[in-house]
Design a protein that fits this description.
It is a single chain. The protein has two domains: 160 residues, Rossmann fold (3-Layer(aba) Sandwich), CATH 3.40.50; 130 residues, 3-Layer(aba) Sandwich (Rossmann fold). The chain has a six-stranded parallel sheet, sandwiched between helices. A five-stranded mixed sheet has the order 7-9-8-10-11, with helices on both faces. By secondary structure, it is of the alpha/beta class. It contains twelve helices and eleven strands.
Length: 329
């Protein structure tokens, strides 16, 4: 049975709140960003909660200091601000320092992709996957619903090192059922296993992948769907086994196409593992836009909506598809 949808951040914060009652090593740091669940954390554990204000650079350095003292730290802010505003601090105080000093620090960025749709490109976040993947020892986690977001708490507390969790700001339909967590060990879940074409999606785009797969199924074209939620430490061996059954792999991300995101991740993976597949990268086409509209409308305009993707895959299956972002070898 599917879970009743709630915000990703609330699902994760509930796990953190419950754990803080028994685990005195968990510390929470916020950059003046709240939620009702966060209010309970602040009220119940004031000695392990700090609001640094609108100061994300300070957020990173304070959190790094706490992590060096042995705390498991959760640092919380809006996605573009916790990644781009303080990237130097992340690189020096977390990525570099964690190579010589053990630390467990988890950055929670809320507002991945277009989820702050009415706020425009200053608050939207199309670059975070590229930026955080550039740091070689960062784990990048991109859940597709609140069940997966809550389950990733276990990864946060159980694995040392710096991590970035990119959460959607909107309440999304539940994909995973209550009590059925995503496969944390492998870093991905296979939702549909077919042949020919496979959609490998992350975050919000998994919802789009299901819409596209359902539409194509009604037209007689069955395609595979994989949720790749760990963008750094997935099981390469198992993912290769899944992808080798296909002729074409399609990456789907709510980030800029051809700019080092999931398309680059899979392109490198295909090359390194000598997979004989063609790669097509689907991501945001063009540059920054200031158009107003719903998320669905904006997605169609930038090339990642269900309509445009469905047509693109139909053209591909009929031999009319445009050049892919990777060549079949």
């Amino acid at each position: 049975m599917s879970a009743k949808p709630i915000a990703m951040r609330d699902a994760l914060l509930r796990r953190i709140h419950d754990a803080m009652a028994t685990d005195k090593s968990i510390f929470f740091v916020s950059a003046d960003f709240g939620s009702p669940v966060l209010d309970r954390i602040r009220a119940d554990f004031p000695e392990r909660f700090v609001n640094v204000g609108i100061a994300e650079q300070n957020l990173i350095n304070v959190s790094a200091g706490l992590a060096l003292e042995g705390y498991t730290v959760f640092a919380y802010a809006i996605a573009p601000f916790i990644t781009m505003r303080c990237f130097e601090q992340i690189r020096v105080s977390l990525a570099l320092l964690s190579t010589v000093r053990p630390m467990n620090l988890n950055l929670i960025g809320v507002g991945a992709g277009y989820s702050y749709v009415v706020s425009g490109p200053t608050h939207q976040c199309y670059e975070d996957i590229t930026l955080m993947r550039a740091l070689p020892n960062f784990q990048v986690l991109s859940p597709a619903d609140h069940v997966a977001a809550a389950a990733l708490f276990d990864q946060c507390v159980g694995v040392l090192g710096p991590k970035y969790l990119r959460l959607d700001a909107q309440v999304l339909a539940a994909i995973y059922a209550d009590g059925i967590a995503p496969n944390l060990k492998d870093g991905f879940n296979v939702h549909r296993r077919e042949s020919g074409i496979c959609l490998v999606a992350t975050g919000y785009m998994l919802h789009t992948a299901f819409i596209v797969a359902d539409r194509l199924s009604r037209l007689g074209l069955e395609i595979g769907v994989i949720d790749l939620f760990d963008l750094a430490r997935f099981s390469a061996e198992k993912l290769r086994t899944e992808l080798m059954r296909y002729q074409t792999v399609v990456s789907m991300e709510e980030g800029f196409a051809g700019r080092g995101g999931v398309d680059a991740l899979l392109g490198d993976f295909i090359r390194r593992t000598a997979l004989d597949v063609k790669l097509i990268g689907i991501g945001v086409e063009g540059g920054y836009r200031f158009d107003l509209g719903t998320r669905a409308e904006l997605h169609e305009q930038v090339g990642i909506g269900p309509d445009v993707i469905t047509q693109r895959l139909l053209d591909l299956s009929n031999g009319r598809g445009k050049a892919a972002s990777g060549a079949r070898r």
